[in-house]
Design brief:
The structure is a single chain. By secondary structure, the chain is an alpha/beta fold. The chain is about 40% helix and about 20% strand. It contains six helices and five strands; from the N terminus they run βαβαβαβαβαα. It has helices spanning about 15-25, 40-45, 70-80, 100-105, 115-120, 120-135; strands spanning about 5-10, 30-35, 60, 90-95, 110-115. It is globular.
Length: about 140
């Protein structure tokens, strides 16, 4: 299956977002990356209230520590919105806290990855996303 998978990167770190974009472009032409600088902008994009467009199917890569609306507030809003509740979300964070990891999984994230573990080996993340998108049926 070679359909395009849209990736929403919700992260206030421009370098992290650009690294994801570059790494995915090296995997092949099957990813379209849209960036949001915080949770509120991410919600606006998902709800169609932004000039940035994201079409289904999509996967969200979410940082936890952001200004204005952090990752946990974003997760709460997404899971509480019937039109967004089935969103596939992976956390990509600097936090190695057991409490943060447990809380994220309680909010039904698909996975929790540390930026420090992924950073130098971004190919691992891109391979995971590529294989995941090719192996599962994402919600429309």
């Amino acid at each position: 299956m070679t359909e395009i998978v849209n990736i929403l990167v919700v992260d206030d770190d421009d370098v992290a977002a650009e690294t994801v974009r570059r790494s995915l472009s090296k995997v092949g032409g099957h990813f379209h990356v849209v960036e949001a600088g915080d949770g509120q902008e991410g919600l606006d994009i998902l709800r169609g209230r932004s000039d940035k467009r994201l079409h289904r199917p999509y996967i969200t890569l979410l940082d936890l520590n952001m200004p204005r609306m952090n990752g946990f507030e974003f997760l709460e809003a997404v899971r509480g919105d019937p039109t967004l509740a089935s969103s596939v979300i992976f956390v990509l964070s600097t936090s190695d806290s057991d409490a943060d990891r447990t809380r994220a999984y309680k909010d039904q994230v698909a996975g929790y990855m540390l930026k420090s573990a992924i950073g130098p080996q971004m190919v691992r993340l891109t391979a995971l996303l590529h294989d995941y998108a090719q192996s599962v049926r994402l919600p429309l």
